[in-house]
Amino acid sequence: MTTDPKQRVLSERHAKTAIAALAAAGASNIGADWLSPNRALDLNFQGLAPAEAAPAVHAALIDLPTDINAQSASGRRKQLLIADMDSTIITNESLDSLANFIGIRDQVEPITARAMRGEIDFEAALQDRVRLFAGHPASLLDRLLNERIHLTGGAETLVRTMRGNGAFTALVSGGFTFVTEAVAATVGFHTHRGNVLLIENGVLTGAVAEPILGKEAKMESLRAFCAERNLVAGQVMAVGDGANDIPMLLGAGAGVAFHAKRAVAAAARFKINHGDLTALLYLQGYHDAELVI
Q1: What is the pTM of this model?
Q2: Is 128 an active-site residue?
């Protein structure tokens, strides 16, 4: 159980309510472990499948702004983190922000939203949006990095902590390398992948290099990183918010829909709607004292 770190609404009363709900559903040997005071709580139990446990606790605490996820206790700490960038590691959609500079956000943003909801093909939607930037100066990219890129709460702590515990960390985005390179360096990812905007004579051409990194490429990246490091899917944590992240989330041992679109949340096993990215560490059983701030 995790909640918004700014609110810290979890209490001992809520813990007792959750324990009672688990017991009523058939769980036994239930114990409580506060990973972070009033913010993250582990409930250890036996005799009840995770798929039954989470709904039972959620029903008992339905009005509490808390994310409730259940899993096996074994293998919780992952050895590979693969993360989406836009609206996940950073708070905004970078292409929408770039469009705002030249007054075409009203044309770009609706296409982005539909693509992230899975209503239209991601690759075609990317090409349609990029085409609108043809003829504009590439210097807008520097302005984007300087003015509009903001990290999501807990991003640096997530990556630093997993790296500090031996995990490999990769930023894999349908966005663009001019942003992924900067964000990966700032946050501390081992590597990054993204799409390449084509520039000629300091001007955006309105095209993106092929092949486009979309949902299939994200899943292929997961497989490639696993193969390189002799890992299996169960050792992977993936996080994202858009429809192009769904295969990656389903392919990981712990696929987390982070403040995600409805279709993504419905598909993913784990959901974080209230917490920041440190919730992914609590999902792995880390205590506050182990976090690398």
Answers
A1: 0.96
A2: no
